[in-house]
Amino acid sequence: MTIAICDDEKIICEQIGKLVKKQIPDCNIELFASGETLLKETKIFDIIFLDIQMDGINGIQTARMLRNKKEEALLIFITGLKEYVFESFDVSAFHYLLKPIEEKKFAEIFARAVAAAEKKRGLAEEPFFIKSNGKTIILSRNHILYVESQNRMVNFHTANECLELYSDMRDLEQQLGRNFYRCHRGYIVNMGHIAEFGKDRIALTNGETICLSRRKYKEFVKVYMDYLRKGGALLESF
Predict the structure, then answer these.
(1) What angle do CA 184, 188, 194 make, to 5 degrees?
(2) Cα–Cα–Cα angle for 145, 90, 115, nearest 5°?
(3) Which of 124, 140, 172 lies at the terminal end of a domain, its last residue?
(4) Domains in the chain: how many in total?
(5) What is the pLDDT of residues 60-116, one digit of tens each?
(6) Fewest CB atoms within 10 A around its CB: which of 56, 87, 93, 114?
(7) SS3 206
(8) Which range of residues forms the domain containing residue 87?
(9) Where does the chain have alpha helices with state H?
(10) DSSP 172-235
C-alpha cells in the first residue's frame, strides 16, 4: 500500500503518518508540503491525504489536476472548514477529515479506504467479455471509460482505444455491473473515471466530456454519492 500525505503544516503530515503506521506498519508513505510538489511526483499512490487550504495551489485545484492526469488514487481531504465538503465530491473524493484530526475517526475512515483500495485493485483485473461477429473481445472493466451508442453501433471508449461493435445498450447496462451508470440514453459511464459533473455534463479523468440527462440528474447524484461513500461498491438495490 503506497500512501501520499500532502499538507503545508509539517506537524499534520507527521501526525497522519503516525496514524497510518499504526494501522499498516509496513506501508510506503510519501510526504509533500504543497500541491505543486505532489503534482510533480510520478509514483502511483493507492490513497492520497490532501489538505484543502494550502498556500499556492489549494487542495481542490490539486485534486482536479490529479484527475486530469488520470490519477485514480482514493482522495481523503483534510480541512478545518465544513463548507469545503461538497466541493470535495466534485473531484471524486472518498471522504474528508476535519481538523483537529481525531484518532478514532481517522482509524474508521482509513480502514474503509484501505478496503476500498484493495477492492479497486481486484476490480481492475476483472474481465469483461464482448461478443461480436463470432469473436470474443476481452476488456478489463476498469479500463472502460464509457460506452457510447451511435445509431445501431456501440463504441467502447478506453484510455487507449475505441472499439466499435454491434450491441444493445440495455443489455450492456446489465452486463457491465454496478460500477457503471446509464447517465443518458446514449451513454453508460464508468463511475470510477468521473472527474467532475454538472447538471448536464460529466467530465472524465481523461479530459473527455459526455452528456448527463437532466431528468436523471437527481438519481445520478444519489447513485454516485453512494458509490463514493461505499468506496466504489454500490448497494445491490441500485
Answers:
(1) 100
(2) 70
(3) 124
(4) 2
(5) 899 989 988 877 889 999 988 776 666 656 677 888 888 899 999 999 999 888 888
(6) 56
(7) coil
(8) 2-124
(9) 10-23, 35-40, 59-68, 85-89, 103-124, 169-176, 217-229
(10) HHHHH-TTEEEEETTEEEEGGGEEEE-SSEEEETTS-EEE--GGGHHHHHHHHHHHHHTTS---
| End-of-domain residue from the set 78, 105, 124 | 124
Residue type, 182: R
Q: pTM of the entire structure?
A: 0.56
Burial class of residue 222 (count of CB atoms within 10 Å of its CB; 0-12, 13-18, 19+) = exposed
- Which three cell numbers, joined as nine digits, stand for 222? 444519489
Residue 19: HSE in the Cβ half-sphere, 13 Å Cα cutoff: 20
Residues 68, 51, single domain; the answer is yes
CA 212 to chain CA centroid, nearest Å: 18
What are 206-230's pLDDT values in tens digits? 889 999 999 999 999 999 988 876 6
Residues 224 and 152 in one domain: yes
Q: 52 with 135, same domain? A: no
Nearest of 47, 6, 51, 68 to residue 196 by alpha carbon: 68
